[in-house]
Structure formats: C-alpha cells, structure tokens
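Recall the central idea of this unit: under ordinary conditions, the amino acid sequence of a chain determines the structure it adopts. In this exercise we apply that idea directly, starting from the sequence alone.
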Amino acid sequence: MVETKSILEMAQGAIMEQVNQEVGKIVDNILDPNTDAKKKRQLSLTVDFAPSADRSTVVITATAKSKLLPNNSVQTTLYVGADTSTGEIQAVEMVPQVPGQQSFEGTIQEEPKILKIAGGM
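Accordingly, the structure predicted from this sequence is:
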C-alpha cells in the first residue's frame, strides 16, 4: 500500500518549512515584551490549485503569512515654553527626579533631553 502524505509535505517539504518559519516569527512576537501579551497573532496558509486545461496536472502554489502585533506605543512628557527675550522655543523632556539626584536604587538622574526645534515665535 502506498503511503499518503499531507499537502504540507509537498514541494519537498517547502510548504511545511514556510509554515514553520512563520510560526517562529509568531512565537518571537509573543515573547517580545514590547508587544501586547494577550492579543492574538494569526497564521494564514493560502494554497492555490491551478489545473491544466485537460485536468491531468495541477500546479499548487502555497504561501504562508503571519499577522504579528506592532510594538506597544511609547509615551513621554515634554515641558514646553519660549524664552521671551530671544523668542526661542524650548521643549525639555520631563524626568522623574531632579537631575543629579540619586534614587533609592542608587541610580543618578541624568540631565533631561532637550528637543531641537526649528523656527521660533
């Protein structure tokens, strides 16, 4: 008796290889702490069957695609204002402590980042 195989094993296993590669991408995306842990990811396998005119052969084309989650958004807060004497606009990123101050964990607060702004008032 002839052993039958899954459609995934056709094309010398290339269809299964594509599926496995996309599963790897999905698992990496699930393990990425910058993505939402609870949202679903998706794997789609499209298999197209194109028969010849006499129906004696069928060309199969398979494509595996994964639908991943984007990174979580990141937020920061800026203090904004203008130097009234020069008209220069300034935006400085808010930091949790006074610059140079030591936290309970022993880290020193860095100077805040200043946003470069083109133009003025």
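The two ends are 85 Å apart (CA to CA).
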